[in-house]
Amino acid sequence: MPATQHDQWADRLVIISGPSGAGKSTVVRRLLETCSVPLYLSVSATTRQPRPGEVDGVDYYFLSHDEFARRRRAGEFLECKEVFHRGDWYGTLRSEVQRGVAQGKWVLLEIDVEGAMAVLEQYPQAVTIFLHPGSLEELERRLRHRGTETEESLQRRLEVARRELEYLPRYQYEVVNQTVEQAAEEICRLLQQIQGARHAGRTER
Ligand code: 5GP
Prior knowledge:
The protein has eight helices and nine strands. By secondary structure, it is of the alpha/beta class.
């Protein structure tokens, strides 16, 4: 990758991780609507089936396993992982990051903990935020309320959440999602502060 592209991306990445079902997507949507920091949400690719209401190219690029593998071989992903260890792949497309950066925006990656670590290895300056519902009990309550999971997949998600929580100390910021408004506001404030600090750093140099 050319050095210029690397540099351009380095201080534009914001990673948000946290247990699935913690309301991450809703918080991110709210953040995009309300925060003054210019943000571009990277649309990930996945091999999993769309949930009711999910739209291709908006929520995810829903790809067949063959197409995902082809793109992986072609080096189109910044990172990609088999997230739930049951054969479904998720990945961040380089083209998405490029699109956000070209628009002069910060690029938001809503990805799992392993994906986050893989991005951090390449871009240590990336901002990392761990969003979680406060406790595993609260997460279980929310997942049941959402009603999109079978009992088996719910238990699997809770198990994954338990393991994901172990990564919390490796994130720079922790946000507890009590309400959508509060979590989005907290993240926005963080980003405004970081933006201000980086801007000050640049003008001092
Ligand atoms: P869901 O199936 O509920 O939409 O997402 C499941 C998990 O996959 C979530 O933890 C989400 O953050 C993660 N995920 C979504 N997109 C990506 C991606 O591009 N890369 C990685 N590594 N994880 C992702």
